[in-house]
Here is the input.
Amino acid sequence: MPQNILRMAQTDNNSVGKLQINVTSSLGLIPIQDATVTISYTGIPDVTIEKLNTNSSGQTEVVDLPAPPIEYSLTPVEQQPYSEYNIQVEAPGYEPVMVSGTEILPDVTALQPIQLTPLETTEEQNDVIVIPDHTLFGEYPPKIPEDEIKPMDESGEIVLSRVVIPEYIVVYI
Here is the structure.
């Protein structure tokens, strides 16, 4: 599938968000140079959108990715206000990592930190990290209602119904 068809499938306008990936070692947060970063759309994970390498600071260049219109983020609508991408990171001597669900909003630069684990410290496995839907958009259980004014315990604690800032604070040294 050509890249422009993929971009059209993801968004129906020209809104663009930006993404930069920061790759470090899980041991000491050392930047990993020359890691291969593959970005794909979550809905079409087998099609590569971008393939990047990290620099000496463990960072990729900032890339433009299609995003939904900014209006989706400004007022409540049924459409998801962000695009979701998969990020596959591989580097020699490290376990590969897959991050699924990186969120890209229009006109914003998203920073995605990724830590790779050295091969000698792990058993053979591939890590897949899944980022769930944002709480404003995803389906989550409702918040449990609480009383606005809490009853006082016998310990003398008082819970106020609003924030009170004292006029003077006395500090003893």
Remarks:
- Helices lie at 3-10, 71-74.
- DSSP finds two helices and eight strands in the chain.
